[in-house]
TrEMBL record:
SUPFAM superfamilies membership: P-loop containing nucleoside triphosphate hydrolases (SSF52540)
Descriptive protein name: Peptide/nickel transport system ATP-binding protein
Family annotation (PANTHER family): ATPASE AAA-TYPE CORE DOMAIN-CONTAINING PROTEIN, OLIGOPEPTIDE TRANSPORT ATP-BINDING PROTEIN APPD
Domain ABC transporter, first and last residues per copy: 12-259
CDD domains: ABC_NikE_OppD_transporters (cd03257)
Phylogenetic placement of the source organism: Bacteria, Pseudomonadati, Pseudomonadota, Gammaproteobacteria, Oceanospirillales
Locations listed in the record: Cell inner membrane
Organism: Marinomonas rhizomae
Key word Signal present: no
Single GO term (MF): ATP binding
PROSITE patterns: ABC_TRANSPORTER_2
Length: 279
């Protein structure tokens, strides 16, 4: 007898979202969903509206930006609400490109972690840092953010995002400022944390599947992490679908240019593929 499982719950629903500055349309009537446990990338060049969309989702839009349409997080309408006005279940964890602005430069890593969560013992903090693939975790606890590499700071920011308890993580260009090795480390950590089994095995992180909205201009990076892609150009969604389908058979001319540019980076014309969690 076949077992009918319920469809994945919708963690994020963006509905006819339009963002204005005076009379200029910055984001034009876009709609998409992200379901529980899904890893979705929002791809586009600078000025495409992808980061503005991320700010509308996490509640950090500038007050002079006018909003039409809706953003629904875990069933709660939040399009008109700044982050501090949102109910706890409608808050979104965010990882930004600029790690320096996200961390207190005058406070040690261990102190910042202790203040942001109920994890206080040194052993618990060490376990958390090791889960973020941070080596020499013992010495990291006593160091300042300026003493860490860019990749280490970014993985630390991912840890803060997960410790917030939010089940939706928006990562806005988290690998752009990193070298290739650090990029791979950050992608691996994001991949592990988005896997429901990886998160459920840690008493420090939430047990529910984590949904990821990954903002990037680099489709070759997204190909290593995400299941589905949404392509933006000039404030509009021009194409969306399974990422591997978009890589194999891009339909819109802009998506075709993105894929062609990514292929030119790899001499064998084969883009990196999403790997298993324990890779």
């Amino acid at each position: 007898m076949a077992v009918n499982f319920p469809p994945p719950r919708c963690t994020l629903s963006v509905q006819n979202l339009t963002l204005f500055l005076d009379e200029k349309v910055l984001v034009d009537n876009i709609s998409f969903d992200v379901h529980e446990g899904e890893k979705v990338c929002l791809i586009g060049a600078s000025g495409s509206g992808k980061s503005l969309t991320a700010r509308a989702i996490n509640g950090t839009l500038a007050p002079y930006i006018d909003v039409a349409g809706d953003v629904i997080v875990n069933g709660v309408s939040v399009a008109q609400q700044p982050v501090l006005a949102r109910r706890a279940e409608a808050r979104v964890a965010t990882v930004f490109q600029d790690t320096f602005s996200a961390l207190n430069p005058l406070m040690s890593v261990g102190k910042q972690l202790s203040l942001s969560t109920n994890v206080h013992s040194r052993d618990e903090l060490l376990a958390l840092l090791k889960q973020m693939q941070l080596k020499d975790a013992e010495s990291l606890l006593s160091r300042l953010p300026s003493e860490l590499s860019g990749g280490q700071r970014q993985r630390l920011c991912i840890a803060f995002g997960l410790l917030s308890g939010a089940n939706l993580l928006v990562a806005d260009e988290p690998t752009t400022a990193l070298d290739v090795l650090s990029q791979q480390q950050v992608i691996k950590v994001l991949r592990q944390c988005c896997d429901d089994h990886a998160c459920s095995h840690s008493e420090y992180l939430h047990a529910s599947p984590l949904s990821l909205l990954f903002i990037t201009h680099d489709i070759s990076v997204a190909a290593q992490l995400c299941d589905r892609a949404i392509v933006m150009q000039d404030g509009k969604i021009v194409e969306q679908g399974a990422l591997q389908d978009l890589l194999s058979h891009p339909q819109h001319p802009y998506t075709q240019r993105l894929v062609k540019a990514a292929h030119q980076v790899f001499s064998d014309t084969k883009l990196p593929q999403k790997q298993a969690v324990n890779a």
